[in-house]
Design goal:
Number of domains: 1
Largest sheet: 6 strands, antiparallel
Number of strands: 6
CATH architecture: Roll
Distance between the termini: 13 Å
Number of helices: 3
CATH superfamily: Hotdog Thioesterase
Strand content: 35-45%
Length: 135
């Protein structure tokens, strides 16, 4: 069980569902990405500001495990934690129903930092990863 450091309430929108009446598998990645962006903004880190400074966070690997389908109007909580593993910043994320805490999907998303096009790091993410690991 992960020690999640950020939580974002969300709700399934009807247009995110496929013909089977469940959330399309590709939409889960959007949920995870939106959560990462909101998490960084909560830490006063802006992707656009980093980019202006020549710093780009790039997703290099995504692993998603689907457990229980989300349905139209389901309310859920998107949670994450961050760890630094070598040169990678790894986001561990999960989607839980808000009412009964059922796990709908979990993900391991690996990112790297490019500084002016070369592999590097950013002190902002290092600080957050260190804070998360201290918990």
């Amino acid at each position: 069980m992960q020690n999640y450091i950020f939580e974002l309430p969300m709700e399934v929108r009807d247009y995110e569902c496929d013909l089977q009446g469940i959330v399309n598998n590709a939409v889960y990645q959007n949920y995870f990405e939106h959560t990462r962006h909101q998490f960084l903004l909560s830490k006063e880190i802006s992707f656009s500001e980093l980019h202006r400074r020549g710093i780009d966070a790039v997703v290099v690997k995504v692993e998603i495990s689907f457990k229980h389908s989300l349905l139209p109007s389901d309310q859920f909580s998107s949670q994450l934690t961050l760890k630094k593993e070598g040169v990678r910043y790894v986001f561990y994320q999960a989607l839980f129903s808000r009412d009964n805490k059922i796990l709908h999907a979990s993900a391991r998303i690996e990112t790297v930092i490019l500084v002016n096009g070369k592999l590097g790091f950013t002190p902002e993410l290092d600080r957050i990863a260190n804070e998360a690991n201290a918990l």
